UniProtKB/TrEMBL annotation:
The chain crosses the membrane at residues 60-82, 89-107, 153-174, 180-205, 226-249, 269-292. It comes from Catenuloplanes nepalensis. Gene3D superfamilies: Phosphatidic acid phosphatase type 2/haloperoxidase. Residues 87-195 form the Phosphatidic acid phosphatase type 2/haloperoxidase domain. It holds the Pfam family PAP2. This is Membrane-associated phospholipid phosphatase. Keywords: Membrane, Transmembrane, Transmembrane helix.
Length: 309
């Protein structure tokens, strides 16, 4: 038991540190360097491609995200957790949502963006994206509290929605790709850090809140959502590889003026930024989906007493 808890704690700490390091790398490369700013800006300014077709769904998704809607969704997440008697999950879900969104606002205010003359229309630091942080943290919170019967389908749907929200900030011209990528890393780091609150809990106590039951035997219920995590991880890694290739091709034209870029060149940059956002969403949420079953045991069932005779 204690060895398993030690493994889980170590994994969550490593995951938190890795995501924090990736966040710092994104900031140092795409905010602090001229080359990173140039690649990011070319991806953003190419958002005119397909803008007419994407305007309605993009606007619909982004307009649903506000302080009021975040509060309502948070209340729904807490209600689901409490209704299922997963009280500690309610605490962790709240910590993820509150911590990620507060951290994003602090980082946005404190981050310094050197002016290299790359994008004079958008001055100041915009990393991380607030809208993407809302989507990512809410998706993570729901993944934590969803019943296992719908966890796999729910995880894929939530990941798809969060990824689309991140890409939508790029399509709407609100944020550079790195802003959305950073938002997923902020939310993911908070999720893995908050997950440490679940590690030391005895499984029987966490399963029904009373400590009177036993964890259900067998692995089918416990790992039922594993295939969804695998889909997200494989798809996320593939998207990140594609993003790296497309942004490497974009690097070849960073000294060109935006007006000189052909539609093909612009599309390559735009697709690279979108793939980077979607890939980060897939990897971050996939890792969370793969870890949650180990932190949240199935609901326990009291052992039936044998009838006399």
């Amino acid at each position: 038991m204690y060895r398993r808890q030690a493994y889980l704690a170590t994994w969550l700490i490593l995951l938190t540190v890795a995501q924090a390091a990736a966040l710092l790398a994104v900031y140092r490369i795409f905010v602090q360097t001229r080359t990173g700013q140039a690649v990011d800006t070319i991806s953003l300014t190419a958002n005119w491609i397909g803008s007419e077709q994407l305007h309605r769904p993009v606007t619909l998704v982004l307009n649903t995200m506000s302080v009021v809607s975040l509060a309502l969704v948070t209340a729904l997440v807490l209600f689901i957790a409490v209704y299922r008697r997963r009280y500690r999950l309610a605490v962790v879900a709240f910590v993820v949502i509150a911590g990620a969104n507060v951290t994003t606002q602090l980082l946005k205010l404190q981050g310094l963006r050197p002016e290299y003359g790359i994008d004079p229309e958008r001055t100041g630091n915009t990393l991380p994206s607030g809208h993407t942080t809302i989507a990512a943290s809410v998706a993570i919170a729901f993944i934590l509290v969803l019943p296992r019967a719908i966890s796999a389908a729910g995880t894929l749907a939530l990941a798809g929605w969060a990824a689309f929200a991140g890409v939508a900030t790029l399509a709407a011209g609100w944020h550079r790709p790195s802003d959305a990528v950073a938002a997923f890393l902020v939310a993911g780091a908070w999720a893995s850090a908050a997950g440490l609150l679940l590690v030391p809990l005895p499984p029987a106590l966490d399963s029904d809140g009373s400590g009177s039951g036993r964890v259900a035997a067998g692995g089918a219920g416990r790992f039922g959502s594993g295939w969804a995590a695998g889909v997200l991880l494989i798809g996320g890694v593939a998207a990140l590889v594609l993003a790296a290739l497309l942004l490497w091709l974009t690097h070849d034209v960073i000294n060109w003026s935006i007006e000189e870029l052909s539609r093909t060149r612009s599309l390559v940059a735009y697709a690279g930024g979108a793939a980077g956002i979607a890939g980060t969403a897939g990897v971050v949420l996939g890792l969370i989906a793969a870890t949650v079953p180990h932190l949240v045991p199935p609901r326990s069932h009291p052992v039936a007493e044998a009838s006399p005779g």
